[in-house]
Amino acid sequence: xxxxxxIKYAELSTKKDNINFFIKTLKKNIEYALINLNINLNFDKGxxxxxxxxxxxxxxxxxxxxxxxxxxxxxxxxxxxxxNIEHEAISILKSQKFSTFKVETKRSFKDYPLNxxxxxxxIGASVLKNLDNKKVDVKNPDILLKIEIRKDESLIYFxxxxxxxxxxxxxxxxxxxxxxxxxxxPVAFYLACKxxxxxxxxxxxxxxxxxxxxxxxxxxxAEILAEYNLDVKIxxxxxTKIQEEIYKNINHDYLITIMRRMMYRISExxxxxxxxxxxxxGESVGQVASQTLTSMSVINEVVKMPVIRPVSCLDKNDIIxxxxxxxxxxxxxxxxEDCCTIFVPNHPVINPDLNLAKNxxxxxxxxxxxxxxxxxxxxxxxxINDKNxxxxxxx
Length: 395
Prior knowledge:
By secondary structure, this protein is α/β, with parallel strands linked by helices. It folds into 2 domains: about 1-160, VC0802-like (2-Layer Sandwich), CATH 3.30.2130; about 175-395, 3-Layer(aba) Sandwich (Rossmann fold), CATH 3.40.50.620. About 40% of the residues lie in helices and about 20% in strands. It contains 13 helices and 15 strands. The strands form 2 sheets. Strands 1, 2, 3, 4, 5, 6, 7, 8 and 9 form a 9-stranded mixed beta sheet that branches. A 6-stranded mixed beta sheet has the order 14-13-10-11-12-15, with helices on both faces. Helix 5 runs parallel beside helix 6 (about 210-230).
């Protein structure tokens, strides 16, 4: 009997002809996340099996990998003889603390001499006979013992752990996420990863108007999010000249509208250069002036690339709850302003006029300013297995 981690796939079964690609990508992602551990990984179209030298750390890592429906600590028997399954099940349960139990059996090997119900009843009777003070509870057992009968082997496990579900990262291509220091964009990052999108990030800074603490805050967020994305490449754009030109030359009611249009233009160019198929951001409908439907339409007009807004229809409390779950919330609320907040006017327009926005931005030489900003971009790569990247102590 071997101690193993058994992984059940998430939505991969819906992929039919492409299932091998999705499973192999999940395997690659798991191996990358566990690269510093000694593991033995095997898989088929129904399950993935991991033997490791550190089960606690392996489970911690698996909790942040998309494409996993559930996983569980279990035991693999090299045969499917009922007597062996019965003996090992009793042996395993003797080391567990419980009062009530239930047995469930699944047979992928249909030629087995006993059906699923018969196996469950026999194992349950054996537990009652061999272990004192145990009772069957089919609705809410302390332990749900699961047995799987396969052609040449069998599995025994209990107490499944919920995975993140979704698709393995990178199976659906790349996207460029507009990452700020707020609560929303890290949640958008996480939700996009869940749909199999590999994320690169773009961050706009305006020194000296924005501080080094604001930059490090975003890098810390990226470091946290890299666990879900396996790594992350961040494109840092110096937005100072563009922002100052907008502030000096354009009606202040339209500052945010024009600023966002410039950010979108830059993001599209960076996305194309890095083979990203979509732009992603943390905009939520109606949350601020630039996120009304009219504002989104006017701002979006400058790009042809699709824009995905994963949190667009979520309640703010829902977004906060996800940010706490993924452990970005405490960093997001640190009081360091980014360039989206430093020049916010008292009365930003909430229903901007497209023609007026175009007239305003023609007051500045934005094309050359954008070229200069892209030319001087800084790129930082964060890898989950790189122990040298830590922005915790400099915030």
